[in-house]
Amino acid sequence: MANESKKDFNAMLKDSKDMPKYVKITDEASIKKYGGDNMYFAPPMAYDEIMKKIPYGKVITVGEIRDYFAKKK
Q1: Is 21 inside a domain boundary?
Q2: Residue 5 domain-assigned?
């Protein structure tokens, strides 16, 4: 990332940007890729909470986190 020394990553993490939000998608390629026509946008803090629960040494993908949110909501 460029200019990392100027960024406040804690502020970016806490900026929810009007999330969580649900969006109805109509693009056929996106519906096929993600398996549905509803999309949930989670705030950065929600991702952070999930990642903190992962035990040391275990690997989890963004897709698995998305699946978790889809089942939870």
Answers
A1: yes
A2: no
pLDDT at residue 1 greater than cutoff 60: no
* Most confident range, picked from 12-16, 26-30, 51-55: 51-55
The domain containing residue 28 runs over which residues? 15-72
Cα–Cα distance, 35 to 67 (Å, whole number) = 11
Domains of the chain: total: 1
Query: Distance (Å, rounded) from C-alpha 31 to C-alpha 17?
Result: 24
Over the chain, what is the mean pLDDT? 86
pLDDT value, residue 49 = 93
Residue 42 in domain: yes
* Type and span of the H or E element at 30: helix 28-34
